[in-house]
Amino acid sequence: MNDFKYVFGPIPSRRLGRSLGISPLPKKTCNYSCIYCQLGRTDKMTNKRQEFYKTEDIIAEFKQYLKDSDKFDIVTVVGEGEPTLAANLGELVVALKALTDKPVAVITNGALLSDPQVREELCHADMVLPSLDAYNQEISKKIDRPYGTIKFEEEFEGLKKFTHMYEGELWLEIMLVDGINDDEQSILKFRELLKELKYDRLYLNTPVRPPAEADVNVVSEERMRYAVETLGGISIEMMSSGAFFSEIEDDYEAVKSIIGRHPMNQFEVRGFLESRDVKDPEAMMEQMKKDEAIHVIDYKGILTFRLK
Ligand code: SF4
User: Fold this and answer.
1) Structural domain harbouring 168
2) Within a domain: residue 247?
3) CATH code, 133
4) Which of 192, 76, 61 is nearest to 135 (CA)?
5) Which of 15, 164, 173, 227 has the lowest tally of Cβ within 10 angstroms?
6) pLDDT tier at 245 (50, 70, 90 boundaries)?
7) Is residue 97 part of a domain?
8) Sheet containing strand 302-307, strands side by side
9) Ligand 1 center from residue 32 Cα (angstroms)
């Protein structure tokens, strides 16, 4: 299974469970060169959509993978670059969906959402996870360092249009970088922009893995808390430490208090309970399913819990 070219993983993800990756383009092909990118600086900088690999070749490999294993929770088109640069993204998503009942997600930096064709293609996915790291061109140039012709205003307009036309699950992500977009004024600017968008969840991230540029730093816990509270988001880092903001001692009540404010999917609940050393998280989730105060939503086989 190690010699696959397009299929990788599954990789355990705090948000998505066991995520089986599908890469539709060569490594480090991107229209951004983010200062926080874990892959280093972008060496194949382009903003031209093209068919890097044939859909049939990717699908043949996915079929091969499915013969041996179905141990994944979600299929994620992500690649080590920007997947919307693949001109066959739409047909790829449709073809993947025809072969599995699991949800198919696309993770994107959102730059090409200014293109109506890209917006149409992404509508085929069950979940889309776009990024929004900047609130104007200046900040975009500092953090994302986009391809020369990309304009922040056009990107944002595209994102806005997409969030209003898309009917699947839309999870936004903002990467907060120390000293660039994490001050109070920046957070308030993000708050204004977010009012124009329609989304199901907002995740806040900070570069915890080795970034492309050495002087990129994570934000302080205080700044992250301020952003979480002001923007109503979920901190990805706090998910891993189990902090999800509950000081309630009783584990069951702690989960209930969180899902009263933010829905959590089964992986997030499990991660949270494990971080608190709960012996049998599965048993606690069974209890949650029976709890009349909790609404359990089954979306493509992934359970989401929220308080009624
Ligand atoms: S958009 Fe993603 S792949 Fe492209 S440079 Fe940024 S982090 Fe790296």
Assistant:
1) 7-241
2) no
3) 3.20.20.70
4) 192
5) 164
6) low
7) yes
8) 264-265, 302-307, 294-299
9) 6
170 Cα: distance to centroid of ligand 1 (angstroms): 19
Average pLDDT, the chain: 90
pLDDT at 243 (0 to 100): 43
Span from the CA of 290 to the centroid of ligand 1 (angstroms): 42
For residue 158, which of 109, 94, 106, 231 has the smallest C-alpha distance? Answer: 109
CB within 6 Å of ligand 1 — which residues?
30, 32-34, 37, 39, 42, 81-82, 109
Q: Name the domain count of the chain.
A: 1
Per-residue b or e along 159-195, where b marks 16 or more CB atoms closer than 10 Å to that residue's CB: beebbeebebbbbbbbbbbbebbbeeebbebbeebbe
Instruction: Report pLDDT digits (tens) over 161-173.
Output: 999 999 999 999 9
Q: Write the residue with the smallest CA distance to atom 5 of ligand 1.
A: 33
Structural tokens at position 305: 């819990």
pLDDT higher than 80, residue 207: yes
Whether residue 252 is contained in a domain is answered as: no
What atom of ligand 1 comes closest to residue 39's alpha carbon?
Answer: 8
In a domain, 254, yes or no: no
Taking the C-alpha atoms of residue 26 and residue 139, their distance in angstroms, rounded to an integer, is 27
- Closest residue (by CA) to atom 6 of ligand 1? 34
Q: Distance between CA atoms of 58 and 95, rounded to whole angstroms?
A: 10
What is the pLDDT at residue 29? Answer: 94
Between these two residues, 210 and 238, which has the higher pLDDT value? 210
Q: Is the pLDDT of residue 2 over 70?
A: no
- Whether 241 has a pLDDT exceeding 60, the answer reads no
Of residues 265 and 22, the one with the higher pLDDT is 22
DSSP per residue over 127-186, as a string?
EEEEB---SSHHHHHHHT---TT--HHHHHHHHHHHHHH--SEEEEEEE--TTTS-SHHH
